[in-house]
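To assess whether ligand presence alters the predicted conformation, the chain was also submitted together with adenosine-5'-triphosphate. Input:
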Amino acid sequence: MAVNASRGEWKIQHGVFDQFTLRVLEKLRGQGHFEELTQALALGKEANVFIAMADPDVIVKVYRLENRDFKKMLEYLVQDPRYAHVKRRKREIVFAWAQREYRNLLIAREAIPVPKPMAYHKNVLILDMIGGPADQLKDAPPKNPEEFYATIIEYIKLLRKQGLVHGDLSEFNILNLDEHPIFIDFSQASPVDAPNARELFDRDVKNIIRSAGKHGVTLSVTDFE
Ligand SMILES: Nc1ncnc2c1ncn2[C@@H]1O[C@H](COP(=O)(O)OP(=O)(O)OP(=O)(O)O)[C@@H](O)[C@H]1O
Ligand SMILES: [Mg+2]
């Protein structure tokens, strides 16, 4: 899963990137953001996430250009006032999705700890790596759930004050970094004045209440007001 610089090709274990994505990766690599992809962390429906060698290592998130639910993405995107006029071409939707995560992370990091977005180009986003692959909350239950969930609630409130709703909070998108929650995966996050912001917020609250319950912490919606 290394770049073969002599041929200018990127080979990965689970397939080969399409030509377009190869060029995007090559451009970002040429700008010095990383040297090579070293490990696939998550090969998902929407994005493939890799660790890349750099000093220090970074995360490279490649949004898939194919096999996506473009209609659903577009529905979400146009409700975000910043993307109301996004071009309806499939690729443009993916690019907007990547750009939106970059912009959301810049906003979020003013209020709460999140990975620092380093760069994006077309369908690829480069981020600070936080912790290791095993740090998703689903694999790393908190030692002090009471305190952990209190911090999650505080972060949700701080984020809202900063003008954002995460919209996809789950045990997959919260990392447990040395007993501190770190929110990741901000591609779905929307401004609080988006027409669907309430719906996204309510869904986050429901997910966190359910997750807290699994760890013996009882929360109610009023805790998030
Ligand atoms: N900055 C980061 N530091 C460490 N690990 C990360 C980071 N970003 C992502 N990961 C790991 O990769 C996994 C997938 O990342 P992410 O949630 O951003 O992508 P995704 O779920 O595929 O995104 P989307 O929902 O947009 O398709 C995370 O659950 C986490 O384990
Ligand atoms: Mg995710």
